[in-house]
Amino acid sequence: MPDFCVLTYLKFYVECLERGKMSKVFRFIDLFCGIGGFHYAIKNASKANKSNVECVFSSEIDPFCQESYESNFGIKPSGDITKIDAKNIPDHDILLAGFPCQPFSIIGDMKGFNDTRGTLFFDIARILFEKKPQAFVLENVKLLVGHNNGKTMRKIIKTLSDLNYNVSFKVLNAIDFGLPQKRERVFIVGFKNNLNFDWPKMNIKMKSLDDILDDQVDNKYYASKKIKNKRLSMKNKPNETTIWHENIAGNISIYPYSCALRAGASYNYLLVNGERRLTEREMLRLQGFPEGFKIVCNYTQTRKQAGNSLPVPVASSVLTNLLSAINNESIYPNRIIDSQIYLLEKETNKYGTPKTKKRRKVRAAVST
Ligand SMILES: C[S@@+](CC[C@H](N)C(=O)[O-])C[C@H]1O[C@@H](n2cnc3c(N)ncnc32)[C@H](O)[C@@H]1O
Q: Quick one: 241 and 95 in the same domain?
């Protein structure tokens, strides 16, 4: 086969694979789905990767979250995951789970994944065991990493590795991904194959609070005179927009960003300029939810939902790199490249083409 025929064949082959990539639909499941932070994130990631995603199963125990999820995605999540047989969950490529931060002391001195029984992590593990998706992303509070001197995390990673996944984890902060919210979360990713996954770069400029907060809000969001006066007696009000954070000891700190939204915090935990609560929409913006997200529950429920949710841009960045790693694997699986280079070298050797020239041609053929 002459040199140019090999290259033409190689180009055609890569184009076919490229076309395959465009039409590939990644099926995902959304466990502990809340109001769908992961659902938005994977949709963003699929756009960035020019691939398609489809939610084939979701689970959420809280009826208000179910209502929000259904209103926004047209899918009513199944209920309690502990009651769902993994065999009844549809096949999928990617498992997503922002699992609740249970008291991790439950995960005792376990030796294998059976010893995680009684934790919601066990439910993730048993689904991975049964369905063997090619990748997963889990999300939890940063505290998980240091819990019990790191033992809990080591046990989680060991369990996932024993299920034959290549696992890595990283703590990421929403403030590094453009959101004016300090929210540190651990992300755990796993792949069946040994893929070239990079954690996202954290260099997105933080939006200012003025980009997120409304100029005028209803009077109902304002704190009582007593609370406002108490705040002002403790701190001077800066000229710029700030969020005043009250810690458990009652100390006030003032920042040009928000501290982590929390589902169960007191109503005065975060006050804009020391005087008013965040509106439902502002809380969702602080988590990176789109303006089109329909708010269908009351203030108390929406506040809880936003506080439990994940920062969408962080999860989008992780999933963009994850889909890219999977896509690259399916376009350029090593064995295909190896065999193509072997073929090319074998054929071009017949014609005495120098090695350096061949390498350049291979690279050019693969990258065009
Ligand atoms: C940390 S939140 C995850 C929120 C989600 N990532 C989001 O973007 O909104 C955990 C969720 O798990 C749900 N949950 C707790 N126990 C559950 C169970 N046994 N089955 C299904 N969902 C459960 C909670 O109601 C909560 O909404």
A: no
Q: Could you tell me the residue range of the domain that residue 239 belongs to?
A: 215-278
Same domain as 156, residue 241? no
In a domain, 56, yes or no: yes
Are residues 182 and 152 part of one domain? yes
Q: Whose CA is nearest to atom 13 of ligand 1?
A: 32
For residue 34, how far is its CA from the centre of ligand 1 (angstroms)? 5
Residue whose token pair is 């995603």:
53
> Following DSSP, what letter does each residue of 184-221 receive, concatenated?
EEEEEEEESS-----PPP--BPPPPHHHHS-S---GGG
Active site (annotated) includes residue 259: no
Ranges of H-type helices in 96-150 = 120-131, 143-146
pLDDT one-digit tens code per residue, 186-218: 999 999 988 889 999 878 899 999 999 999 999
* Candidate of 30, 32, 33, 83 to mutate for ligand 1, largest count of ligand atoms within 8 Å of Cβ: 32
Q: State yes or no: pLDDT of 309 exceeds 70.
A: yes
Record the pTM.
0.84
Residue 293 lies in a domain: no
Q: How far is the CA of 103 from the centre of ligand 1 (A)?
A: 14
> For 46-88, what is each residue's pLDDT tens digit?
999 989 999 999 999 999 999 999 999 999 999 999 999 999 9
Q: Report the nearest-CA residue for atom 10 of ligand 1.
A: 100
Looking at the 3D structure of the chain, how many domains does it have? 2
Residues 127 and 240 in one domain: no
Higher pLDDT, 93 or 349: 93
Same domain, 124 and 243: no
Residues with beta carbon inside 6 Å of ligand 1? 32-38, 59-62, 65, 80-82, 98, 100, 120, 308-310
